[in-house]
Amino acid sequence: MTGQHEIVHIGGYTARSGGRASGIVAAHRDPATGALTPIGTVAVTPSPSFLVRHPTQPVLYAVNELTDGQVSAWRVGADGALDALGSFSTGGAEPCHLAVLSDGGHLVAANYGSGSVAVFPLDAQGAPGERTDLVVHEGHGADPERQDRAHAHMVNPDRGGGPLLAVDLGTDSVYRYDLDTASGRLVPRGPRMRTVPGTGPRHLARHPDGQRCYLVGELDASVTAYGLSDDGALHQRGRVDASGRTGHVQPSEVAVDEDGRFLYVANRGVGTIAVFDLAGELPALVSEVDTGGEWPRHFALIGEHLYVADERADMVRVFRRDASTGTPTPVGEPVPVASPTCVLP
């Protein structure tokens, strides 16, 4: 914190992935207006495409989305400064997502290129150690180009300590794992959950009630609603379109607001954020707003504001959300950020 401002970190693609970022950018956020003011690059690191924080320690983690994938860690200092704690191999290619388990004891990462999930122990200060497990998914999906093999796209821990969900775009599957904390190894919990063939599941958002979740299909532009059992089992309730627009729709991020009333989906290609009401059995589209760019790769809900990272337009767009309708309205001008792929509050 600096005065009345909060610090936000932004990840992006660097030259090694065809991007224009130089590393992780820090920015001041004004909680009252939502305004975002970049400070500059605080860590020069290759393609930190997804970022996450430790639940209790001032530590930030990033994947380095490279052919020889890595995870890197930094201690967060004043004004968002980052002090390197080390980098470790993920044992796979193009890691694109990572998460810290709820007890803060382990970090997990999804290797998109090689379809695997890596586990790293974290010490009491949040510093990572050498990898303790690497689980490789097998199989393929219906799309011969995008689903020729496994492509792990997200690791989603249960904040209540239940099974970890691993979303795999390439095999049209969601896998469940328990973590043996003593050994740092993942133990499969039952068979994988298979989606409709050709869905290409990308990201999953849990509802605050712990009994529902929503999965976006990158390849078929869908949102699938599931009931969620205590054992992490998914029970399909139905599917809806991720966008009401025509044209090429490629969903990216999905999130439920903290009140559990609205679901938000970013749609690349058509450049929109779709808002769904969650009062009924299935999500109901209530509004869809243009982001001002074509490729909203990621967004973050922070209080009454929404921050959209448009990877190809080199900008982060700020919106204010209407409390009653959930609809976002743009605030101010787009914030220039090179090749942004992740906004971390």
Write out key terms for the chains shown.
345 residues, mainly beta, Methylamine Dehydrogenase, Chain H, five-stranded antiparallel beta sheet, 30 strands, globular
Question: Care to describe what's here?
Answer:
By secondary structure, the protein is mainly β. It has no helices and 30 strands. It has strands spanning about 5-10, 25-30, 35-45, 50-55, 60-65, 70-75, 80-90, 95-100, 105-110, 115-120, 135, 150-155, 165-170, 175-180, 185-190, 195, 200-205, 210-215, 220-230, 235-240, 250-255, 260-270, 270-275, 285-290, 295-300, 305-310, 315-320, 330, 335, 340-345. Strands 12, 13, 14, 15 and 16 form a 5-stranded antiparallel beta sheet that branches. Strands 25, 26, 27, 28 and 29 form a 5-stranded antiparallel beta sheet that branches. The protein is globular and about 50 Å long.
Rounded to the nearest angstrom, the radius of gyration is 19 Å
- The CATH superfamily label of the domain at 49-194 reads YVTN repeat-like/Quinoprotein amine dehydrogenase
CATH architecture of the domain at 49-194: 7 Propeller
Q: Please tally the helical runs, counting DSSP H or I stretches of 4 or more residues.
A: 0
SSE run = EEEEEEEEEEEEEEEEEEEEEEEEEEEEEE
- Sheet with the most strands? 5 strands, antiparallel
Q: Class of the domain at 49-194 in CATH?
A: Mainly Beta
Which structural class should the secondary elements be placed in?
Answer: mainly beta
Please tell me the overall pLDDT.
97
Q: How much strand content do the residues show? A: over 45%
Q: For the terminal residues, how far apart are their CA atoms?
A: 12 Å
* Overall helicity: under 10%
- The fold-level CATH name of the domain at 49-194 is Methylamine Dehydrogenase, Chain H
Low-confidence stretches: none
Shape: globular
Query: What is the count of β-strands?
Result: 30
